[in-house]
Amino acid sequence: xxxxxxxxxxxxxxxxxxxxxxxxxxxxxxxxxxxxxxxxxxxxxxxxxxxxxxxxxxxxxxxxxxxxxxxxxxxxxxxxxxxxxxxxxxxxxxxxxxxxxx
Length: 102
Prior knowledge:
The chain crosses the membrane at residues 47-68. This is Multidrug transporter. Keywords: Membrane, Transmembrane, Transmembrane helix. The termini are far apart. α2 packs antiparallel against α3 (67-83). It is built from three helices and no strands. The longest helix is centred in the middle third of the chain and has 36 residues, at 29-64. By secondary structure, the chain is mainly alpha-helical.
């Protein structure tokens, strides 16, 4: 009995700890529907248009030294918004926003 008590306490601590870490707000059906019908197609269009704009602007961004920044803004962020987040999940996907100081 003495050996099972520390193991059971450890098990309960691990169980409670994982429950608090995985607690997240689940999107509603309406949020998922709006995401599926409106946000994802707009994100796909933004990705395609951003990629085209990036290709056209890339010679100029190479000369000005903003090639990577324009790639992130025009291609990476719309692609992340469209393809890597959960359905109905609208997080701050641009949280790694970088401010360029001159």
